[in-house]
Amino acid sequence: MNKEQDSSKVLAKDNKIYFPNLNGLRFFAAFVVLLGHLEQMKEYYLDIEPYQFLKNPDSGQLGVILFFALSGFLITYLLLLEEDKTKTISIKDFYIRRVLRIWPLYYFLILLVFFVLRYIPFFELPHVDVDNAYSPRNLMLYLMILPNVVIHAFESVIPYIGHSWSIGVEEQFYIIWPLLMKFVKKKERLLIGVIVVYLLMKYALLPVLHDVTGNYHLYLFYKIWNKFSISCMAIGGLFAVWHYKKRAIVKVLYNPILNWCIVLFLCTTLFTTFRLPYLNYEFFALLFGILILNMATNPNPIINFENRVFNYLGKISYGLYMYHIICVVIAVKLLAYLGIYAWEIQVIFSLGITVLVSSLSYYGFEQRFIRMKGRFSKILSGDNAAIGKKDE
User: Of 174, 184, 205, which is closest to residue 71 (Cα–Cα)?
Assistant: First the structure.
């Protein structure tokens, strides 16, 4: 077996697995979301003319799709390794690890927004229906980690945490994924089946049922299902299975010309209004999956994000994603008070404040819970696999 081809499993022999470049991709995903939300906040809430540097109306969504594909890839690969090492998958340990990583910051922001920021005049936003946004129903759904139900079913956007709908989707994915991975032996068939079933329900079954029955609850479920995006995470997982099982298609996808074409196309779409009818999310998840596969497993990737800056920014990327709207509002309002409206300065200032707040959060709050994850981990991953610590 070629050493280069099995580089990830060499680490796995020591109960550790480290994929290079994933931190850089996490930061890139968070940064694209920040850019998209910067323009949205200026236009819809702050009454400031948007610069519209990114022309694609789904530019921020592209960052979310990248996050989904990354989650599917890494979680699937780690579960495959755990099953290989222990002959089973510990559902309980998996849930505990996800709770320790996701819940503390998620719930901190829910409490901050509902009980603190809404009462501070500086953070008041025009055009917000306060009674509807901060209703007991919405609070309860957020506490149940169902923010995607609030925004997609009831079309209610909570200031500063509306983007957490994607956290709800990922958490719901995490509930079912280890169960499917543990009890379904044919992993590739499982992943392809999930993609096909999701799309069939989205575009064939649910629309027909809704039109026929007119059932309100079915209508709500249909709206939630449209944005559930488990297909994007399954696509990321499919690439993980192909790498793990060393399928021949992996070498084909390592082609540098193919990868450069994908990178150039993705960059171009940010400055156009390109959308692929019906399969837009899945199409981009597929492109991101190829890039993730190459940057994480190819011994000769076309782009290398392995450096201290990107590794650090990727490490705090969860905070970058969760805090960025609060920080964007702080940055834009302060700059507007000073009479500064230059887009470049808005981006730099917004990113700088977000990095600062996320760093303080990571080292002063999140890291305590991250370190506890090691007690429930059979396989170390991420930065801590590289340095041998059970805290990531």
Answer: 174
